[in-house]
Structures are given as structure tokens and as C-alpha cells.
Give the backbone structure.
Amino acid sequence: MRVWIETNAKMAKQDYYQALGVEKSASPEEIKRAYRRMAIKHHPDKNPGNKEAEAKFKECAEAYEVLSDLDKRKQYDQYGHEGLRGIGMHDFSRMNVEDISSMFGFEDFFASVFGGGGRRGGPVRGYDLETGVELTLDEVAHGTEKTIEFTRQDRCPECKGTGAAPGTQPTRCPLCGGSGQVAKGGGFFQMVSTCPQCHGTGQIVKNPCPTCRGNGRVPKKRTVTIKIPPGVHEGQGIRVAGEGEPGHDSGPNGDLYVYVRIKPHEFLERDGNDLIAVVPISFTQAALGAGIEVPSLDGTRQLKIPPGTQYGSLFRIRGQGLPDVRTGRAGDELVQVTIETPTNLNTKQGELLREFAQTENKNVSPKSSSFFERLKRHLGN
Ligand SMILES: [Zn+2]
Ligand SMILES: [Zn+2]
């Protein structure tokens, strides 16, 4: 199986209700109207060359895909974007405008607004799908293999994708003669648009297949096992060729994009390929120096803290970060120490510290001594 890493990180997901400008309580009909309104507003035919509008247009389609489907909407309402993982959503960012315009049964609608359009006859590549995978930092460090389960619309096994009941065949559409397109108007100016009877397929199904109700496709759970290389980042996509939806008319399958999410680690935070650990030490350890235990990817490791360590000091452990996804070169682990001031001293400890305080002078605490000297000067004493 061929797998590769996408360079572009996927940005944070939008709120679907906001994208369509509807309330959370909106009815299916309101959602449909809102989608049509927003899709026209941002349609690239209306905003030529405007990348932002095109991105908005695709966001609206994604929002509509979820909110127009009762199951997906319920999952989204209850669990947010998390709830949609593994459902096998279309990857709209990679789809072209014509394909999106003809989805959800809106081909005629967009054709009537913008003219032309609709699906051409002949082989068409299947749509790309996207899903997510969650990795631990340890899996990121070493690379891993993951089995991903997702649902996709597969060719109906009963009718072999034709949509016609077994024993019957789709027939050529009488309105367009099988071309999928009809011409409107006469004379010099002719408008070509998608055939309203066959929706551009050029074929009519008289007896629909009972399994797929004439769609030619049925949702099917699939599992794929993918190898995830070490060093991937949050939001990176792994493309699995040919695991998207099947194409039309023997067109090739689309691809599946698996987007990476990384579970937060209890002690380590990622900064590029470096890892950062914040470790509290006692003030005596800071003053006297100590060997301390610090969290690392493989458990813990020893770190020597020199005498006189200050609050916030950073120690670099070379090569103990994450590998670079391209070069494999390891980043570093950075340990930042914080110093805890003792509380609840017992009598003995209090005495010892008071005794120590009396011996304190410039040499022991040069910074605070000079600070208080400067402050005294400032106040004119
Ligand atoms: Zn079927
Ligand atoms: Zn037709």
C-alpha cells in the first residue's frame, strides 16, 4: 500500500452551524435553504480567482454534508468534530467546484444559477475521503502501524453499481439521448445544462435495485492498515491511494486522507521536533546542585543540575526529542526547572534557615544584594 505525507497541515475545523449561518435548532429545510444561499454567495463562478471565496464555498459544502445527514448531525451535536472521526467524510478541500456543485442533488440548481456545469459523461475519478487517527507521543517518536476503520460509499454488489434491479438494465435517457446534457433556447445562443431527467448520467433506471434503492452505491465499513512514519505533526494528512470512493464509469477510486491528531502527554510538550519538560526542584537542590529524574519519551532519565541553578533555567538533552519526519534527525529535549520555596518548615528547619540568613551576604546572593543596594540608593538612603 502506498502512503505519503502531506506537507500542508489541516487547519482548525469550523463550526458547521456558523458556516451556514443557522441556529443549532434549524430544521432540515432551513439548513437546505441556508446552504443554497451560502453556496451561491461564495460560488467561484461568482467570485472568479478569489481563493478565500472558494475555501468558504468548500467549507459550506462540508457543513452541509454533516448537517443534512441526520446521523452525522446527531454525532456532531453530541461530540463535535470528534464524533465524525471514522465516518469517512468527503475531503472537500481537494474536490473541484463542478463536483461539489453537483453533489447532494444540487446539480440542476447550480446549473440554473450559473448555467452549464453538471457531470460530463465518461469516466470520473471517485471522491477523496478523509478521516482521523489519534497517536500518542511515543507512537510519533517511533512510527507505528494503525488500523483505520471508516465508512465509504461502495459500488452496490447486488446491481454492480448500475442501480437497476437484478435482471434489468438501465436504459438510455430519452430526454438527452444518453449525453447527459440538454440544450435550452434556440438559434445562436444555446445554453447547455445538465439533463434534469437523468441528472447527467445519460441513463434511466426503471426498476431500481432494492439493495441500494437505485443509487448504485451502498455505505460499507472498510478497514485499512497504514504505516505512519516517525515524526508526523498534528494535522498532517497521510494519503492512502485508492481508498476513497469508487469512480463513475470505470474512473479510478479517489484517495483517503488520514489526518493525524496527537494526544497530549502528561509531562512533555512538543515544540517542533523538540520536547519541553517543566520540572520542579527544591531550593536546596537548586543551591547545592543535584542529580534529578526528568520525564522523557522512554520513561525517565537522569539530569545533573549544577549548584546555583536559577528559576527557569533551561537544560538541553541533545538528541532526545522527536525525529524529523523528512530527515529523521532527532530534536532535543529541553528541561526547564522551577524552584519550589519550602512551606510548613518545622522548628529545626526554621532555625537552620534563620541561621543561614544571618550569614547571607553579597557572595551568596549577588543579584538580590545588588538589587536592594540599588533600591536603597534610589530612595536616597
Ligand atoms: Zn444496487
Ligand atoms: Zn438525460
